[in-house]
Design goal:
mainly alpha
Length: 234
């Protein structure tokens, strides 16, 4: 696994790595900003909908209550955005995954024949499916997360394991679709890859590299994952 991630890291200067990285990061940031703005605007509208007569009994405390509510909602929204940043980021990168797969193939495995990439609609469906599945699993696991935080680092380990399982399975599936049907594997043993990527996602700034490295590392592992099996064209 380490060799696969090292091979992926050494190719970060490839333009076909940079484009997916930039687009998926921008789309993720824009999506979070839009949702945060929408939530803040809705909260303002809802609190302003109360008439003066309804809030007069608070005797001047209404403005403070409104400020505290806005602060708590903003803090909660940022926490949710941080928690699900990796999921949304990974889903957006799924739209550009084929650039990375082909870049790895062209540099290291030029003899490998890949299947044509799926069309945009199929990629969007896969990305939406992954987001919904990740949200569902993480919501179901919230009681364990909360319980685990009282027994550190159990909560963190559970979170990394669950999301690593989802990431490894999803990226393994998407990459496998580019191989010939007779060469595809039915099981995707990439949970540890997803867990390692999830750890990277928790590191500020380095988290932007996580999905690109994960995709390339799984591709390398699928092909052998060692320097001996990867031939560089540099």
């Amino acid at each position: 696994m380490i060799n696969s991630f090292l091979l992926a890291f050494r190719q970060l200067d490839d333009s076909r790595f940079i484009k997916p990285l930039v687009w998926s990061s921008l789309l993720t940031i824009c999506s979070i900003a839009i949702l945060w703005t929408f939530g803040s605007t809705y909260l303002d509208w809802w609190m302003d909908s109360f008439s003066t007569d309804e809030t007069s009994w608070l005797d001047g405390w209404w403005s403070w209550i409104k400020f505290i509510a806005q602060f708590l909602v903003a803090a909660f929204a940022l926490a949710i955005a941080y928690f699900f940043f990796g999921t949304v980021h990974a889903a957006y990168l799924g739209l550009f995954l084929d650039d990375i797969i082909e870049a790895v193939r062209d540099r290291h495995y030029p003899a490998l024949e890949l299947q044509p990439p799926p069309d945009l609609m199929d990629s969007m469906i896969d990305s939406i499916r992954f987001v919904l599945m990740s949200l569902l699993f993480n919501l179901l696991m919230i009681p364990l997360y909360i319980l685990g935080w009282f027994l550190p680092p159990t909560g963190l380990i559970i979170q990394i394991w669950i999301n690593g399982l989802l990431l490894g399975k999803e990226y393994g599936y998407l990459i496998e679709q580019r191989f010939a049907p007779e060469d595809r594997i039915s099981k995707f043993p990439y949970t540890r890859f997803g867990m390692f990527a999830k750890v990277i996602w928790m590191i500020p700034f380095a988290n932007f590299l996580a999905p690109v490295l994960l995709c390339a590392a799984i591709m390398h592992d699928r092909m052998g994952g060692t320097e001996e099996n990867a031939t560089s064209s540099d």
